[in-house]
Inverse folding.
């Protein structure tokens, strides 16, 4: 049985994308994160208390689980390497497969992920939170 036209072009397009980026990550939890700065500074006032801010052009999500306490995590889901893309209440959501992580410590609050988000270093310097890979 031959694949239909849509399936053929979808498969061909995904294969071209994988080859064009130079890496195929598959379904492992060790997939690489997208390119972005290794260290960055962001205004502390832009991170809501009891919430988080997912940085579009960096590998991080910064949280403020309680006033004045800042945490940072690698935003790549430990299930299959998709980035977390939503903050709902006190959870970071990976919309690829439904995993949820706590803003307080990056721990899994709902599978399919079984490992927490990788913690990064977050330091308050004056009015800014400086984040770097740990």
């Amino acid at each position: 049985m031959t694949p239909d036209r849509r399936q053929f072009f979808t498969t061909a397009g995904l294969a071209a994308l994988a080859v064009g980026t130079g890496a195929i990550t598959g379904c492992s939890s060790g997939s690489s994160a997208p390119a972005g700065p290794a260290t960055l500074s962001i205004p502390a006032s832009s991170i809501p208390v009891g919430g988080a801010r997912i940085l579009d052009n960096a590998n991080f999500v910064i949280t403020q689980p309680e006033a004045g306490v800042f945490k940072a995590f690698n935003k790549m889901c430990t299930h299959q390497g998709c980035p977390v893309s939503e903050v709902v209440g006190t959870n970071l959501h990976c919309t690829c497969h439904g995993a949820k992580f706590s803003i307080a410590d990056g721990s899994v609050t709902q599978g399919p992920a079984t490992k927490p988000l990788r913690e990064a270093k977050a330091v308050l310097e004056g009015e800014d939170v400086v984040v770097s890979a740990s």
In short: The chain is about 15% helix and 35% strand. The chain has one domain: 31-133.
